[in-house]
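[step 3/7] fold_predict: job queued, chain A
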Amino acid sequence: MRIIAGTARSLPLKAPEGMDTRPTTDRIKETLFNIIQDEVPGAYFLDLFAGSGQMGLEAVSRGARYAVFVDNGKKPAACIEENIRFTKFEHQTKLYPTEVLSALRAMEGKYQFDLIFMDPPYRKGMEQEVLRYLAGSSLLKEDTVLIVEAALDTDFSYLDEYGMTLSRLKMYKTNEHAFIRRK
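[step 4/7] structure written:
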């Protein structure tokens, strides 16, 4: 696992030990960043269920102004801190080592994000809880892009009731990226 492009290009990143996280492969990460490349420079990027922090660090390397990471696991939080130090992005990042909804509530009034990426545990409905919260949150701008990495069979039929729409779905062999926007 490494930073693919930008100022920290080719720097290797650590992944948390154990089987609790599934780091996004470099190939899928590269595909995702090719899709959002025009929206990254100058963006505020939120990386939820961040694991190693690789998505937010990739965004900062590619010109995002700031990235915020949220992960409540002890090992992932330590790994994110180590990767932030290693990439020397301490001044462009912040880590909330707490549960996602608690972190979102704590961020209200402090941030507005251009891009929100989340990779929650599959098939537990956590993405729906987060999207429900974000639907009424000041953390979203009018044109914020929310990206959910999810299992292929994840249901997003509820988006309409949150005032959101699925603008794009990119499917891979084992998972997908759902691109969600406000209506």
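[step 5/7] annotate
Helices lie at 26-36, 54-61, 74-87, 100-107, 126-135.
Residues 40 and 171 are 21 Å apart (CA to CA).
exit 0
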